[in-house]
Write a structure and sequence with these properties.
Layout: E1 4-8, E2 33-43, H1 53-58, E3 63-67, E4 73-77, E5 96-104, E6 107-119, E7 122-128, E8 131-136, E9 151-156, E10 162-166, E11 175-182, E12 191-197, E13 204-208, E14 214-216, E15 230-234, E16 243-247, E17 261-268, E18 273-281, E19 291-298, E20 307-313, E21 318-324, E22 330-337, E23 342-349, E24 358-364, E25 384-386, E26 391-394, E27 400-402, E28 409-411, E29 417-423, E30 426-438, E31 444-454
Antiparallel strand pairs: 1-2, 2-31, 3-4, 4-5, 5-6, 7-8, 8-9, 9-10, 11-12, 12-13, 13-14, 15-16, 16-17, 17-18, 19-20, 20-21, 21-22, 23-24, 24-26, 24-29, 25-28, 26-27, 29-30, 30-31
Length: about 450
C-alpha cells in the first residue's frame, strides 16, 4: 500500500520542532508552491545483489527525468554497483540494471527494472529528441588506462518504455565520464561521443550506420592536447552537421592563462575531419581553477544563436556562460561560483514562462544554501531543503540571478538530491531518500520520494 501525503507550503517556513504540526491533506490542492510525498517499494528480483538498488537511486550523477509522447513523466536511474571501491576491474563484479519510477497524480511510484542495460557506475548523459545516451564512468582499480565500460542509448517509446542498445563493443570499452550525441554527418542519425575514452587516451567517436549499429571513427576529429572530461555535439550554424564542443578539465590552483578553456571543432570538407575552429580561455571566471564536468548549448538571449554553458568543479562549484557572437566565436559573458551550495550538473529550460531559457541546478550535498540544518553526511538531520539558489533566472541578456521573490524553504523533506524538470510547463523538482529498509525475503527496497511544484510563472 502506497502512502500518499500532500504537503502545501503556502509560502510559510514551518517549524522544525518535534511537536510541530505540518498541514496534511488527503487530496492534492492546487497551489503555486507545494510538495507531495510518497513511499514506494523498488522490486528487482533478478538483480545480482539487492544492495545495488541503494547507490543506483542514491548516486547524484546517474539519473535523469524524461517524458513520453503520451505525456507521462519518468525518472530513470542508471545502474550503479554497490561498494565500487572494493573492485579492481569490471570483470570482478556483475553490472547493475537501470530502474525507472513513474509519476502518477503527483506521486512517484516504482515502475520498472531494465536488466538489459548493464552499468557499473553510470555518469554523464544527454537526452536528445527520443533518445537518451549515457556513458559509464566507473573507476575500478588504480590504473585509469584500464577503466573501461560501455556507452548505451535508450530509445523512448510512445508509452515511456525504453529500448536499449550498447554503442560500443567489448573491445572498445572505455572511461566514458563525458558522453554526448548528435548528428556529425547530416544523415539524420544520432552519433555518439565519449571521453576520456578507451585507455584514458582521447575522445572516441561512434558514427551510427543505417542498420542501427555504430562504427568507431576517432580519426575524423583532429584533437590535440589534454583530453577533456566532457564534450557536446551541437549545430551552431544550422548546416545540418553538428560541431564538437569541449571544455577542459584543468584547475586545481589559482587560475592561470590556460584555465577554463572551451574549443569548437567544425567539419572541414577539404580534410574530411573536424578541425579546430575556435578556442578561448577565461581564467577570471572563478577564484580557483576548475574542471569542466558538463556542457549544454542553448540560445539564452533570443538572438537565434546558441550559447555554451559549462558546469565546473574543484573546491567550490560553478557555472559559466559563453556568448555566441554569431560569427563562429564566443565571448566570456557570465559566471557564478558557489560558496554554500553544491550541484552536480544542470538543465536549461524556461522555468518562469517569460520566453527566456533559465538554468536549473541539480542540488545535493550538505551546505547551508541547500539544507536547513547542514551537517555533513546527515541527510535526515538536515530537516528540510532550500530551493532558491537552484533556480537561476535569465535577465533576458544571458546573465542570471537566483529566484528571490519567495523563500522556497521546505521543512520536512530530506532528499539526497533535487532534480529539476518541467511538467505541463511548470517547474518541478524530484527528490528521493532511502534508509536501507529492505523488504524481508525479497530483493526489494523501500524508498521515499518527493515532488516539489514551484510555479514561478
Amino acid at each position: 500500500m502506497y502512502r500518499y501525503i500532500t504537503f502545501i507550503f503556502f509560502m510559510v517556513f514551518f517549524s522544525c520542532a518535534d511537536d510541530a504540526e505540518i498541514p496534511i491533506e488527503e487530496e492534492p490542492i492546487e497551489d503555486k508552491f507545494a510538495f507531495y510525498s510518497n513511499e514506494t517499494v523498488i522490486s528487482a528480483p533478478n538483480i545480482p545483489d539487492k544492495r545495488y538498488i541503494i547507490p543506483t537511486i542514491s548516486d547524484v550523477t546517474g539519473y535523469t527525468h524524461y517524458a513520453s509522447k503520451s505525456n507521462e513523466n519518468f525518472m530513470l536511474f542508471f545502474g550503479n554497483i554497490y561498494d565500487e571501491m572494493s573492485y579492481n576491474s569490471i570483470n570482478e563484479v556483475e553490472p547493475a540494471p537501470s530502474i525507472v519510477l513513474r509519476k502518477t497524480a503527483n506521486k512517484w511510484e516504482f515502475h520498472k527494472v531494465y536488466y538489459e542495460s548493464e552499468f557499473w557506475v553510470a555518469r554523464n548523459f544527454k537526452v536528445l529528441d527520443d533518445f537518451i545516451t549515457v556513458g559509464d564512468g566507473s573507476e575500478l582499480g588504480n590504473d585509469p588506462r584500464k577503466w573501461g565500460a560501455d556507452i548505451w542509448t535508450a530509445e523512448i517509446l510512445f508509452n515511456g518504455d525504453l529500448s536499449w542498445k550498447r554503442v560500443n563493443g567489448i573491445d572498445t570499452r572505455g572511461f566514458y565520464h563525458g558522453t554526448t550525441s548528435g548528428d556529425l554527418n547530416g544523415d539524420g542519425l544520432q552519433d555518439v561521443g565519449g571521453t576520456p575514452g578507451i585507455n584514458h587516451d582521447g575522445i572516441n567517436i561512434f558514427v551510427q550506420k543505417t542498420n542501427g549499429t555504430f562504427e568507431r571513427v576517432d580519426d575524423i576529429l583532429n584533437f590535440e592536447g589534454a583530453t577533456p572530461f566532457t564534450l557536446d555535439f551541437h549545430d551552431f550554424d544550422n548546416d545540418g552537421i553538428d560541431e564538437i564542443v569541449t571544455a577542459d578539465y584543468g584547475g586545481g590552483s589559482v587560475p592561470d592563462s590556460d584555465d577554463h578553456e572551451i574549443r569548437i571543432y567544425k567539419f572541414d570538407p577539404s580534410t574530411r575531419r573536424f578541425e579546430l575552429n575556435f578556442k578561448n580561455n577565461e581564467p577570471n571566471f572563478y577564484s580557483w581553477g576548475k574542471g569542466a564536468t558538463s556542457i549544454i548549448c542553448k540560445d539564452l538571449n533570443n538572438d537565434n544563436y546558441d550559447e555554451i554553458v559549462v558546469a565546473r568543479e574543484d573546491g567550490n562549484r560553478g557555472f559559466e556562460v559563453w556568448l555566441n557572437n554569431g560569427d563562429g566565436s564566443f565571448s566570456p559573458h557570465f559566471s557564478h561560483e558557489f560558496e554554500n551550495l553544491d550541484f552536480q550538473e544542470f538543465k536549461i529550460f524556461d522555468a518562469n514562462g517569460d520566453g527566456y531559457n533559465d538554468i536549473l541546478l541539480n542540488g545535493y550535498g550538505f551546505k547551508s544554501d541547500f539544507r536547513i540544518f547542514p551537517e555533513q553526511w546527515n541527510v535526515e538531520g538536515s530537516r528540510g531543503v532550500k530551493l532558491n539558489k537552484l533556480i537561476w533566472l535569465n535577465n533576458g541578456d544571458a546573465t542570471f540571478n537566483y529566484y528571490s521573490e519567495q523563500d522556497l524553504t521546505f521543512s520536512g523533506p530530506t532528499p539526497f538530491f533535487l532534480h529539476p524538470y518541467l511538467d505541463n510547463d511548470i517547474l518541478h523538482f524530484f527528490g528521493i531518500f532511502q534508509k536501507e529498509e529492505f523488504v524481508e525475503n525479497e530483493e526489494a527496497l523501500k524508498v521515499y520520494t518527493w515532488d516539489f511544484k514551484i510555479d514561478i510563472k
